[in-house]
Structure formats: structure tokens, C-alpha cells
Amino acid sequence: MLSSIVDPLRSLSRGDGTVQSELATRLFTHVDRLAGLIGPRPMAREATTETTVTYIERELASCGLSVEREFYPLLGRQVCNLVANRIGSGRPDEIVILGAHYDTISTTPGADDNASAVAVLIETARQLQTFAPDRTIRFVSFAAEEPPYFQTDGMGSRVHARGCRSRNEEIRAMLCLEMVGYFTDAEGSQTVPPAIPRWLRGAVPTRGDFLAAVGNLASWRLVWSFRRGFRQGTQLPLFAIALPESIPEIGLSDNSSFWEQGYPALMLTDTSFLRNPNYHLVSDTPDTLDYTRMAEVTLGVASALERLAGGERGASAP
What we know:
36% of the residues lie in helices and 22% in strands. It has a single domain (2-310), classed as Aminopeptidase, CATH 3.40.630. It starts with a helix and ends in a 5-residue tail after the last strand. Helix 2 crosses helix 9 (291-309) and helix 7 packs across helix 9. By secondary structure, the protein is of the alpha/beta class.
């Protein structure tokens, strides 16, 4: 089944495709475990949540990271974000965050939303395993992003972002992975938010073959820097833009929690329901995703993190 999903491998940024092939295989494995084996992951299902957390914790640890559970009360019990820091050697108090929520609503296996993002989070950490950052890179898998917790005090990213502010942490950038696995070359497959100004609509691609990096206006410098770094790692098309928060679609994930605290943040996304017809449905399954392009997302995000954190790379990632 795997070969039918990831082949033929299109080598966008490596000549022989070997890097993408191995990476695509690992990405599929993560998505298949989360969305296929575990299935729907709503916070109300305590056993399922623990299985999910344990899987992510184990995989991040396999990337050489020490993982901590950031507990907080929800649903009459303790739930947690997963936090792993790769401490910077030069400016350790300056932090760059890569985050992705691990929960789903109860009616979907959540392959794209948001197993795809968790998979990219894990494999980005693996790509950076031999990278010695100047700034600290923090990997966070957030609890409780989905309704009914979204934009409430129970939202995992809101808990973490408020904690960052209360500790006076210097968050230089937050990159939010939100649905990063659905791509299509079909003309007209990409729609735009209704609130996008008419003069800007012509700049939005009409095919869903790209990754979007979207920030609020205060994050425009981060948009520019991420774009430069991402394009050094992959040829996958990127649409990067800063928009006003009055366009509601740009704040529909964990990036909004960091904007609330005045931190620069981007949402990295395949644009969710603006492209993927399986959004929040039972049909959001592992076989609908493009693991070759997800591999390119991973390489691009890893390259952007190297730029944002600064530092030096050692031997090639396994």
C-alpha cells in the first residue's frame, strides 16, 4: 500500500530521490499510526490521548530530544503539551518554536488535520538532529486545539504561550504546522478566504500545489525570513504573506495563541478547507495525502529553522 501512495517519487530538491523516499516512508508511518491505527484523537478520550502522547513522545526521543510533559487541567483531569528543547549554544535564551496540535474532533481520523503536521514536526526534529543551533529550537505538540477548546483557556497552545510570557521568554519566532499533507495539481482546486481584498485575489495560486506561510502584519519580518530559509531547502512552491487579523482564516490554529501574547508567528498550511475536501470528515484518511510533497515540506521547514535559529550543521541526518 505504501508504494502506491508515495510512488512515483518526484525528486524536487535531491537528484536521486533517495532522501525523499526514506523521509516519505517515515512520514507515512507516522500518519498511518496516528490516523490509521489510533484513529480519532479527541481530548475526551483519555486512553486514546495517552496512546497518542506516548507515540509522539517516543518518536521525539528517538531524535535525540529530552521530552517533557507540560501538564494543565482540562476535563477534570490533567492533560499535557509535549515540549522538547534543543538548547542553543550561543543565544540559548532566544527561542524558535515549531509546533503542531495532536488532537482531532471525534468524527475524523485526522490524517491531514493534524497527523500530517505531527509527522512533519517529528521528522523536522530528526533532520535537525546533527544541527547545532545558536538559538534554542523548541518542538511542541499541543493538546486541545480543536473545538470545543479552540480560543478558550483550555487550548494547549494558549497555555504554553501564556507560560512563555509569564516566564519572560524571548520567543523570536513561532511556526505553527496546521494541515500540511494535502496537495493537488488540479486547476481551480485552491480557493481564497472571502475577506481577502479583491486586489490581492489574483496573487493567490489557483492550484493547490503549494504550502502557505501566513502571518499577521506584526510578523512580516518573520514571513520574509522564513521564505528565504524555506526556499534554500526545497523547490516546493511557497506562498508567503502577512495579512491583517481581520481575515479570520489566518488565525484558526495555534499561531493565534502566540499573536495574543505579542510574539511573531506563522501558520504553515495546505490551507485546510480552502483546498482539502476531507476537512473534519471521516474521509480524512492516510491514503489521501501526498507524502512526497510532505517530505519537501519537511526539508523546507528544517532549512527555515536553520536560518531562524542560526548555527552549524554536522553530519547528515539519518
